[in-house]
Design brief:
Pfam families: Peptidase_S11. The chain has about 375 residues and is an alpha+beta fold. The protein contains 9 helices and 11 strands.
């Protein structure tokens, strides 16, 4: 059925960039039901309220089960939620204690767009840059992180690495042009892809700490630049019960975008929202509407699956076995250890089976030889 949509007055929405030609295989990643441009919800589930967002998705962050979606694989412009892809790419690789100096090239971002106020020639820790990125959506911080991560004089190599990470995660409809999410030609994502990227981010304890931080301090610099305080711009962090964090975004081409995660009774849901309008309830109102809808559903329903990176190259639409993510409070190390134990047990079981098979075969051979000897004696 069509997505429940609030009518947007003619001319109120900026013309969106022309998306790439649809790829049916990409549209079926995570399950054939997700290929629809319309509403996809479990049988018998209540229809969500009308929204202005052009596409959205609700999924269980632990099991990866997609609970519902509107145009899950429709191309959309990301705005600053693309900073999550930057975090997924480089947070595992950059030492948070490392000090880096801001260069002139890092100041190459759209005037008037969101920036923290980093000073050229000043030095900041990688940790401070992540806080600047996630609390204040600093486009200057995004440029520094992409440049340092890419190891070149500007952010272009960093953006190439972001696109490689998107492919590794199975987010094949995502193509970054800027590290910050500022609009660029050919820059797109989808609600499904952003859920994959968010799941990778929230699997990390350091990311969860950063995105849930209320305030942080930018230290004063030796060159005379003063220090100042950062406040978390995510208005839902303390307004929605169980909110663990989120990332906002806005550009004229993208409209309002949002990716957020909340937890109730040990169950974590992720909502991705693209192409929303500021009225009548804005992205915050639309996200909370979808969160409430998702938490009201039973825990065993789904219309698709967030694929695991190891399945990213599998045939789109294949029935993929859900793999549970870390339980609330569980570390990535313990999850890895559990998987290693399961793998070791599986190998041991296989070896035992092979030994038993060989033993049985030898018994059959000896038995057959004995039968032949018995026949000759008869």
């Amino acid at each position: 059925m069509p997505c429940p949509a609030i009518a947007v007055p003619a001319g109120a929405r900026a013309a969106r960039p022309k998306p790439p030609a649809p790829d049916q295989q990409q549209r079926e990643v995570g399950g054939a039901e997700l290929a629809s441009a319309g509403l996809t919800i479990p049988a018998g589930a209540p229809v969500p309220a009308k929204l202005t967002a052009t596409s959205w998705l609700v999924a269980d962050l632990g099991s990866g089960a997609v609970l519902g979606a509107c145009g899950a694989h429709e191309y959309a412009t990301p705005a600053s939620v693309q900073k999550l892809l930057l975090a997924a790419t480089y947070m595992p690789k950059l030492d948070p204690a490392r000090m880096v100096e801001v260069t002139h090239a890092d100041m190459d971002y759209e005037p008037g767009s969101s920036a923290v106020g980093l000073v050229e020639g000043s030095q900041y820790s990688i940790k401070t840059l992540w806080l600047s990125l996630l609390l204040k959506s600093g486009n200057d911080a995004a440029n520094v992180l992409a440049r340092v991560g890419g190891g070149t004089s500007d952010f272009r190599a960093g953006v190439e690495a972001m696109n490689a990470e998107a492919r590794r995660l199975g987010a094949h409809q995502t193509h970054a042009v800027t590290p910050s999410g500022l609009d660029g030609p050919g820059q797109f994502t989808s609600a499904y892809d952003m859920a994959l990227i968010a799941r990778a981010c929230y699997a990390r304890a350091d990311f969860r700490r950063y995105t849930a931080t209320d305030t942080a301090l930018i230290p004063p610099q030796r060159n005379g630049a003063g220090g100042f305080q950062l406040n978390n711009d995510n208005g839902l962090l303390h307004r929605y019960p169980g909110m663990l964090g989120g990332k906002t975004g806005f550009t004229d081409l993208a409209g309002q975008t949002y990716v957020g995660v909340a937890e109730r009774n040990g169950r974590r849901l992720v909502v991705t929202l693209l192409g929303a309008e500021s009225a009548p309830i804005g992205s915050y109102g639309e996200v909370t509407t979808l969160m409430d809808w998702g938490f009201a559903l039973p825990g065993d329903v789904s219309v698709g699956q967030l694929i695991e990176p190891e399945n990213a190259d599998a045939s789109p639409g294949a029935q993929l076995t859900p793999v549970a993510g870390p339980a609330p409070g569980e570390s990535e190390t313990s999850t890895f250890s559990a998987k290693r134990i399961v793998l070791t047990a599986g190998i041991a079981t296989l070896l035992v089976a092979l030994v038993l098979l060989g033993w049985a075969r030898r018994v059959r051979v000896r038995s057959a030889a004995g039968n032949r000897d018995q026949e000759r004696e008869d």
